[in-house]
Amino acid sequence: xxxxxxxxxxxxxxxxxxxxxxxxxxxxxxxxxxxxxxxxxxxxxxxxxxxxxxxxxxxxxxxxxxxxxxxxxxxxxxxxxxxxxxxxxxxxxxxxxxxxxxxxxxxxxxxxxxxxxxxxxxxxxxxxxxxxxxxxxxxxxxxxxxxxxxxxxxxxxxxxxxxxxxxxxxxxxxxxxxxxxxxxxxxxxxxxxxxxxxxxxxxxxxxxxxxxxxxxxxxxxxxxxxxxxxxxxxxxxxxxxxxxxxxxxxxxxxxxxxxxxxxxxxxxxxxxxxxxxxxxxxxxxxxxxxxxxxxxxxxxxxxxxxxxxxxxxxxxxxxxxxxxxxxxxxxxxxxxxxxxxxxxxxxxxxxxxxxxxxxxxxxxxxxxxxxxxxxxxxxxxxxxxxxxxxxxxxxxxxxxxxxxxxxxxxxxxxxxxxxxxxxxxxxxxxxxxxxxxxxxxxxxxxxxxxxxxxxxxxxxxxxxxxxxxxxxxxxxxxxxxxxxxxxxxxxxxxxxxxxxxxxxxxxxxxxxxxxxxxxxxxxxxxxxxx
Length: 530
Fold this sequence. Notes:
By secondary structure, the protein is an alpha/beta fold. It has helices at 12-36, 41-49, 55-62, 116-132, 150-157, 159-169, 188-192, 210-217, 223-227, 229-236, 246-258, 297-301, 344-359, 377-381, 384-397, 412-417, 441-458, 465-483, 485-490, 503-514, and strands spanning 69-72, 88-95, 98-105, 136-142, 174-183, 195-199, 204-206, 241-243, 310-312, 320-327, 330-337, 341-342, 364-370, 372-373, 402-411, 427-430, 435-437. Helices cover 41% and strands 18% of the residues. Residues 271-530 form the CoA carboxyltransferase C-terminal domain. One of its GO terms (molecular function) is ligase activity.
């Protein structure tokens, strides 16, 4: 059926919500700008004076003209001691008509060296490439590990090389375009890729540079003899192609992709129909106070094809909206929180719906705005634990691709039941209005206060009310800060914070990517405690 809207763009509520969202989006632009700055004006200028392109300029020339680029984890390392973006750009773009995972070192940030967040961001890119069978193109210019933090990089960092070989073994092509240094452990990236292109007189690939070789063996050798592009193209055979400059390397990279003969394994999309309602209105739906409920159908109506949504079990478990739709021509099952709290009925409804999606090989979209599962004597006695477990079981063992969008609250086990990061959705994005934690700041501070008060009184002492007030304020401030999307995105608990108005486009790109691999449901589930 076609969804009807009750949203009034002229109402005071809408205008207030929109103003609050636009303020958050302005803040988001400021944070994204930090990633775009790279290593700062000094190092960007120095890099350009050397006649080199910036990481995003290389990506732009690699991609098909006017094609989209879905950047992933742009706020990685936010709030840490490292620059926002973690010295690497990752994302999905179209090269010669083929969707590819792009991983580009940013040489303006400490020479492109890898810090702990670089490693985590690269792992996430590899996981996405493997799950969705995306060819991987590495745009390499890195000095290797950030040595002061080597203790956090060396042991886990070996997975980067393991992932490259596993991608290749799975029949997923890997390509390295080397623009500058690729030293020490970083030399294994071109060494383990299926195809390697090196830029003449620029690429330097060696396990040990001249100073290390001198110290280790006493031998004296220059950069070119040890690891120059010409040596690797003519002598070692490590380079499959030698480019005359950066533009030529990118041309060769496109040429390689063109000859890969890649075909999507998933079903093709049907005819696409735009929603009936303006995506611009998505900026005025979520309230500033997440305790105020909103109807997720208003979001669905502005995201799915033709605003058509066939709701499943509409009269049962009404705090969770479930139903079927198409999005950019692809079939999708949607689970969306309506009133925040999940009761037993919602959990049972979700479990059945997830089973049906697996039976019909239909991907699932989770739209989060939940405070978690209901607590209290009545609900415990009615079986909220086993019903919540039923929903989580279904989510955990579902095999169709999942996508999560955290629109508002995502607290407690509700985050798990709605396929939070721990449940490996193919993609997870948040809106600037999102918050996620074990529980709300006031609730968490209140629980700590009750426990501390009981412990004090059990010892026969008088509870300090002033100290309690100070503790509550401190805890609420801390949890509020740690619940915000920038904090969570900085730790790679999502794949990026997006403008709500871009949701349909982002979801369309994700669904297209997902269908590079076959889409099939689970053959069975774990034991459902009835």
